[in-house]
Write a structure and sequence with these properties.
By secondary structure, this protein is α+β, with helices and mostly antiparallel strands. It contains three helices and four strands; from the N terminus they run H-E-H-E-E-H-E. The strands form two sheets. It has a two-stranded antiparallel ribbon with strand order 1-4. A two-stranded antiparallel ribbon has the order 2-3.
Length: 79
């Protein structure tokens, strides 16, 4: 493994997709639009009775923010 790949991996770990579960209404748009299929629908329900997305594998995320941009409830953000 080269030093560049180690650096890239360390940088990607610092970035995250955050889900605000109480805002989610289970529309599934974030799951559909994700090009790397990082998000899946979880089994846990929020206070409104909706299931919300969970991160399947953060290492696959390319941080394109499509999930953030498409969410009508602003339930996801990338930082």
């Amino acid at each position: 493994m080269s030093d560049n790949s180690i650096l890239s991996r360390d940088v990607s770990i610092r970035r995250r997709v955050h889900v605000i579960s109480d805002r989610c209404k289970e529309c599934g748009l974030c799951i559909i639009v994700c090009p790397r299929k990082v998000l899946i629908l979880g089994e846990t329900r929020n206070g409104k009775g909706f299931r919300y997305p969970i991160i399947k594998n953060m290492y696959e995320c390319i941080f394109c923010k499509l999930c953030e941009y498409i969410c009508p409830e602003l339930a996801l953000y990338v930082s």
